[in-house]
């Protein structure tokens, strides 16, 4: 599990491509190296990856076909940077919201509004069917950053970013058309799906009752 509080950014130092598989090497921030070993989980732009090899501050991770298909990690090039966070411990402060590191879809940046002390960014989901899980003032994970949803339309949503977030994460360098990884808040997802299921059952029961009543009249 992760908290959505990005602990640093890491440069991609090398990429090794194989059929439907990739290994990339990042320069891990020194503060995140203690205790790091193969098998440990590290979030890259919100996507949970497992450490494959540690060589000083050069840390390798393997990315399988599904990860490359559904996240923006497939678009990384040498020299790019990613948001990183070590897996949370029981004693850690949860400053954001609990995140699993499982990316649901990506979103494209469609609008950016910048003022003196903050920035508003609008996103359009690649999978529009998941807009039902994005609610005003709800939680969302964007490239591993725990954020609060601002306005929501039928097809888009926005977040408001403070200078600290822009300085500490990769969002400060994002431009129109860039893709970000999206993790939906699982509690919101569970509530929405439960309500949908209950309403569908209720509608089916009412329809069945109406049909039965018609048959009795006949």
Give an overview in words.
- The protein is α+β, with helices and mostly antiparallel strands and 218 residues long.
- The chain folds into three domains: 79 residues, Elongation Factor Tu (Ef-tu), domain 3 (Beta Barrel), CATH 2.40.30.20; 80 residues, Beta Barrel (Elongation Factor Tu (Ef-tu), domain 3); 28 residues.
- The strands form two sheets. The chain has a six-stranded antiparallel beta barrel with strand order 1-2-5-4-3-6.
- A hairpin with a 2-residue loop joins strand 1 and strand 2.
- The longest helix is centred in the last third of the chain and has 32 residues.
- The protein is elongated, with a radius of gyration of 21 Å.
- The mean pLDDT is 92.
- Its EC number is 2.5.1.9.
- One of its GO terms (molecular function) is riboflavin synthase activity.
- It catalyses: 2 6,7-dimethyl-8-(1-D-ribityl)lumazine + H(+) = 5-amino-6-(D-ribitylamino)uracil + riboflavin.
* Strand line-up across the major sheet: 1-2-5-4-3-6
Query: Helical stretch count?
Result: 3
Per the CATH scheme, the topology name of the largest domain is Elongation Factor Tu (Ef-tu), domain 3
Q: What CATH architecture of the largest domain would you give?
A: Beta Barrel
What's the rounded overall pLDDT mean? 92
Return the domain count: 3
Number of strands: 12
Largest sheet: 6 strands, antiparallel, barrel
Helicity level, as a percent range?
10-25%
Question: What is the level 1 CATH name of the largest domain?
Answer: Mainly Beta
> What's the Cα radius of gyration?
21 Å
Low-confidence runs = none
- Tertiary shape: elongated
What portion of the residues fall into strands of 2 or more residues? 35-45%
What's the order of the H and E elements?
EEEEEHEEEEEEHEH
**Helix/strand-derived class?**
alpha+beta
């Amino acid at each position: 599990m992760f908290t959505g509080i990005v602990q640093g950014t890491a440069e991609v130092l090398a990429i090794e491509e194989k059929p439907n598989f990739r290994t990339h090497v990042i320069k891990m921030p020194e503060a995140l190296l203690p205790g790091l070993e193969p098998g440990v989980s590290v979030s890259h732009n919100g996507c949970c990856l497992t450490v494959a090899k540690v060589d000083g501050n050069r840390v390798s991770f393997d990315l399988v076909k599904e990860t490359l298909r559904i996240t923006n990690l497939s678009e990384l090039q040498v020299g790019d940077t990613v948001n990183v966070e070590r897996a949370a411990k029981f004693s850690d402060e949860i400053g954001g919201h609990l995140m699993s590191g499982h990316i649901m879809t990506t979103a494209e940046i469609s609008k950016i509004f910048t003022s003196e002390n903050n920035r508003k960014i609008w996103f359009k989901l690649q999978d529009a069917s998941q807009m039902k899980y994005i609610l005003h003032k709800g939680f969302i994970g964007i490239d591993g950053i725990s954020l609060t949803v601002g306005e929501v339309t039928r097809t888009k949503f926005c977040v408001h970013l403070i200078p600290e977030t822009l300085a500490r994460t990769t969002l400060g360098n994002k431009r129109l058309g860039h893709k970000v990884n999206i993790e939906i808040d699982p509690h919101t997802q569970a509530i929405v799906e439960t309500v949908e299921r209950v309403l569908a059952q209720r509608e089916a029961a009412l329809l069945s009752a109406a049909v039965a009543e018609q048959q009795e009249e006949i």
